[in-house]
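Input chain follows. Return structure tokens only.
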Amino acid sequence: MEFLDNIFTNIYAWLVFWLHSLLEGLNLPKDLESVIVSTIMVLVVIVAIILWMVLMVLILIWLERKSAARIQDRLGPNRVGPWGLLQPVADTIKMLIKEDIVPENADRFIHTIAPMIAMMPPVLAFAVIPWGRGMYPVDVNIGVLWIVAVASIGTIGVFLGGYGSNNKFSLLGGMRAVAQMVSYEIPQVLTIVPIVLMTGSMSLVKINEAQSGWFGLQWYVFAFPIGTIAFIVYYLSALAEVGRTPFDIPEGESEIVAGYMTEYSGMKWALFYLAEYFNFFIVCLIGATLFLGGWNGPLLPGYVWIIVKTYALVLLGMWIRMTWPRFRVDQLMNFAWKVLVPVALVNIVLAGLALPVLKMIGF
């Protein structure tokens, strides 16, 4: 099991050793050789993560369609490839060859750059996510703060998409998105405070290591009531933050056509679509890391555990999407400010009072 748990770190170490051996014959200065090897390995890690993200989105699209079909008594994709597995690939090809239409009076620069900005937060957040023991691109002592900071960038991309389209429905969708994301960011961040207090660090690696007791089952979600409440508030806030149903007010097609994406087509529309799935996956991944023990668990390797936990949260979000109707705008905002924010604040006070007790019992 130790071999399986460390297989990717061993591959990384072997690649570093092989590169050093390859460069040794060139008689380069040791400092320069180390810089070259480090640069190559950084590029390898970046490419591996990006390829994984693309594969993950294809899996999520297929999984969501199949889950919706099962819940709503339909078949779902079943023609392109076995069990419809190649349907996301066919959709990707369709998006690549569709015409890119820009409204005549739209701001072409803003209209073009908005989807790219919306794609930035999940890509940047992946830099500090630990996938297993020793499996993380960067371990920074402010990992939680980094994620909170980069997550706010997506709001700018969505608003610019609505503003730059020169369409009143798109602008309304962009304004709704700003109001919703800013509102739900607050309880989402507040729920992370008790976890940081219990761990004593903002490093995601340290948070994972702090949940390694009890045969890998000392997860913060079991720290009732603080961890349980924090997890519930975090997950609901995260669904609203990424615009998933029943919180998809910015795209409310029944009132504003398609919101901030109304004037988008082809790959620009696909980038917004990908950004939603990237964000959905990353908030579930962060939730699994903060509350469900991350890579910790019995028997299976750490990277398997974190993927299983992440996809469990993904399936829960899909189930909620297929069964709940969309909130009205007033219900959405009231739920954030009158329910989630007060609960999160009370939970922080409880955490401050209960921490000495939890430490006494060994949590």
